[in-house]
Amino acid sequence: MRVLVVEDNEAMSDAVERGLVAEGFAVDVADNGVDGLWRAREFTYDLILLDIMLPAMNGYEVCRTIRSEGNTTPVLMLTAKDGEFDIAEGLDFGADDYLTKPFSFVVLVARIRALLRRTNPTPGLTTITVGDLTVDPTTRRCTLRGETVEFTPREYSMLETLTRRVGEPLTRGELLNHVWGADYEGGSNVVDVYIGYLRKKLSPRPDGSPLIETVRGIGYRIVDS
Known about the structure:
Elements: E1 2-6, H1 10-22, E2 26-30, H2 33-42, E3 47-51, H3 59-68, E4 75-79, H4 84-92, E5 97-100, H5 105-118, E6 128-130, E7 133-136, E8 141-144, E9 147-149, H6 153-163, E10 170-171, H7 172-179, H8 189-201, E11 212-215, E12 219-222
Parallel strand pairs: 1-2, 1-3, 3-4, 4-5
Antiparallel strand pairs: 6-7, 7-8, 8-9, 10-12, 11-12
Helix pairs in contact: 2-3, 6-8
């Protein structure tokens, strides 16, 4: 899951970024509304955390603009303004939820997961099943042939990204951006390393075929049986 944090308070954005990365999210950060709007236009995110009082362009305008352009990415507004009219205005501009500062990080993550469940493209879907593999995005629990498989947050994020686009080849660049974020400065070989970790934990099917295939010249895909 990839999240954009638009927040001008450096201490706040750093804390949120560290916490979300520890939870397995890929995080991009913008410290003003103009940069946040540019990132929302240029990259694909699963959710946007958007402060209201931002330099250059406030959060209301960022939200209004992306909605007017057809961007339906869930928006969770983070702000110190807690008046009922402020909340109503944020929702009227297209925000999906509203969290007042200071907030508990546990509550923030719970709100994010609730928003992601509500905006799942397949209504009523609580688990993703690919052959003998089942992934539950709500609990982040994975089972293979009925047995629980443990993953690190980063491994889980890559696995979920692949399972949400089952059968579709994903390039190393797509996986890198979605799992590590656009600001990651390392090489794309880290994707190959983590694919290796997943393959070690996801044993081949009974017929010997791998769950994760290499698509020569492109990248990787996860395939149904």
